[in-house]
Amino acid sequence: MSNDPDFELYDNTGRDADQITAAKYGTATEGDLRRWAERDARSFLSRHPLPHSLAEPEDTNRFKNALRDASTPAEASAVTQAFLDAATHHVQAISDYLVAAAQWRDQHRNASPTSPPKQFYAAASRALSALSIAHEADTRTLRNHYDPSPRRPDPPVKQPPDSPGTAPRR
What we know:
The protein is mostly helical. The protein has one domain (7-146). It has six helices and no strands. Helix 3 packs across helix 5, helix 3 (30-47) crosses helix 6 and helix 5 runs antiparallel to helix 6. The model has no long low-confidence stretch (mean pLDDT 82).
């Protein structure tokens, strides 16, 4: 990439912020990581078809069994992402219900921070946060596999003096 700022402006046309940052620091974008993992897990997923939604509680067993059989980070990520996608609408429904419970009869207005309505709001938020945290953990697993950070050099080891000598006398 040129050091000319005018060129950089045009070179970034059509790129999103993630792509620009990745190009600047020489790292992979999340899209790159997902694409590589999907490519590497394609044959695994053909052997382990996973449901697109969680219709029955037993459906989670299919995900757990596939995860147990996964042998690479790409395969584990494919199972994790499929599970998160399948579970998202259920978690969203739970969150929506908890918000409705918090707002029941307008009890949330002027409620104290430790009141049941505020706790319902917190639970709704945390339910959605669980999906986000799981997605971030999965992304970090892929980054560690496909795009690890450069290894930092070990700090220099202090060499002992050549001869111990004697301490000065007073």
